[in-house]
Specification:
Elements lengths: L2 H24 L5 H5 L3 H31 L3
Length: 73
């Protein structure tokens, strides 16, 4: 097999492989079953719970200082 024949067959194989990959990219994946299984109220509850946990030390510090201000020294 000559060099020209190798280049000819090699470029044909590359074209076939690249054509198959282009088709796979053109069709987006169907994620409707995945997104349909997620309950939005559960997600919102989880986000609020994390926010409360992150703010808890600051709220506690504010509450303790507010109670201390109620009593004179």
């Amino acid at each position: 097999m000559t060099r020209n024949q190798k280049l000819k067959y090699g470029s044909g194989i590359v074209a076939l492989v690249a054509g198959g990959q282009a088709f796979a990219v053109a069709v987006p994946p169907d994620l409707s079953t995945l997104t349909g299984a997620i309950d939005l109220s559960t997600v919102v509850t989880a986000i609020i719970a994390v926010a409360v946990l992150l703010m808890a030390p600051q709220i506690t510090k504010y509450a303790i200082s507010a109670v201390r201000r109620m009593f004179p020294k």
